[in-house]
Amino acid sequence: MFINWATNEITLKIVYYGPGLSGKTTNLEFIYNQLDPAMRGDLITLNTQEDRTLFFDFLKLEFGSIMGKKPRFNLYTVPGQVYYAKSRKLILSGVDGIVFVADTQKERMGENLNTLLDLEENLIGMGRTLESFPWVLQLNKVDLPNREHNHILTQKLNYFDVPQYESIAPKGIGVFETLKSIINLVIANVQKNSTQRNKT
Ligand SMILES: Nc1nc2c(ncn2[C@@H]2O[C@H](COP(=O)(O)OP(=O)(O)OP(=O)(O)O)[C@@H](O)[C@H]2O)c(=O)[nH]1
Ligand SMILES: [Mg+2]
Hints:
38% of the residues are buried. The two termini are 20 Å apart. The protein has 200 residues and is an alpha/beta fold. The chain has five helices and eight strands, in the order E-E-H-E-E-E-H-E-H-E-H-E-H. Helix 2 packs across helix 3 (109-125). It is globular and about 50 Å long. Bound molecules: guanosine-5'-triphosphate (GTP) and magnesium ion (MG).
């Protein structure tokens, strides 16, 4: 979180995290294409030739008001491929909320679990934990045939009982529900922390 007292702006950082090809970039593309240009900046993507995220994607949104300030949401995706671990760690720095984009195909469960563990390790490195951090789970690619059962996905990935949404990112199904949910969690968290600060 970054507060600019001069301009009365508060900047909040939301990171889309998840294994390679789970649909993180597709979420940002859909949000970018749907939103009024007055509410968003350009979508900045750094891709390989195969359209895999090389470093990150970035999209800036501006709307509403919180505690009398104008919030800006900086949305990032991490590169999901295993060997970009250092980039993922770097992109997480200063994060306020996380969307974990899981791939619901049965054969991708191992990758989902590895990446959730990678996220937990990075959070612990920042003095945080998945249990205490604002995050939501997006179960993406539910249109594909080899889909894992919901109760198994929930049991293996959502042991902290965070809000979870099914999605088909290229069609936009579940994309804005997920975004609204993480924005609400992040705002609630900022307000809670500022109330606690004011009490002490
Ligand atoms: N059928 C289907 N395809 C999807 C869905 N979401 C994403 N895709 C496709 O999956 C591929 C990978 O999506 P990306 O959004 O690039 O994945 P990513 O998570 O950003 O991958 P990395 O950048 O490598 O980490 C693309 O071809 C998308 O069109 C979905 O819900 N259903
Ligand atoms: Mg990507």
